[in-house]
Write a structure and sequence with these properties.
This protein is mainly alpha-helical. The protein contains 7 helices and no strands.
Length: about 180
């Protein structure tokens, strides 16, 4: 059973809009403090938020990359089937955890568990997007136009690059933890 892609694209765009909005709302919660009496108190407060802002910017960029890659894939994917819908739903489920894992990093700097949780979350999201692409293009299953092998492999490489980077980050994390022990 082949279905049109427009409903899936609308769902994905809506969830990205909500998730990206939650990112800034969760960052705004740290601003609930009593009114400072002097400008210097603002500067002191903002200087303590560097981890929060870095985590926010990194996660927002990752979300932007994910949205773009999904959008790019749907440039070629012309139909969806129940399995691709399931892959998308599971992908969106982990995507929606990014604000939570980001907030953990910003709220608990210096702790390793939030960093590891964030890295595994990102790894799962990028891996599912790779699976999404492989499933859709397998034997031209859900694409309308034949893609040349160069285009197929180029996009597979683009999908694999963040997975490799995340795996390296996780390996470095464990190496750093092992050396520190």
């Amino acid at each position: 059973m082949k279905l049109k892609v427009n409903r899936m694209e609308a769902l994905v765009d809506g969830i990205f809009a909500i998730v990206m909005t939650i990112m800034i709302v969760s960052l705004a919660e740290v601003f609930s403090f009593e009114s400072p009496e002097k400008n210097v108190n603002f500067y002191k407060f903002f200087s303590t938020l560097s981890e929060d802002f870095i985590a926010y910017m990194l996660s927002f960029l990752i979300l932007g990359i994910l949205w773009f890659e999904h959008h790019w894939q749907f440039h070629f994917i012309k139909y969806i089937d129940p399995i691709l819908v399931l892959i998308n739903i599971v992908w969106l489920m982990f995507l929606c955890l990014i604000p939570f894992s980001t907030m953990l990093i910003g709220n608990h700097p210096g702790f390793s568990a939030p960093v590891l949780l964030f890295e595994f979350n990102v790894l799962i999201v990028f891996s599912l997007l790779y699976i999404h692409w492989i499933y859709a293009i397998h034997k031209g299953r859900l694409i309308d136009v034949p893609l040349n092998k160069k285009s197929l492999f180029r996009n597979m490489g683009i999908c694999l690059l963040p997975i490799i980077i995340t795996l390296l980050a996780i390996a470095l994390f464990f190496l750093k933890s092992f050396i520190r022990i």
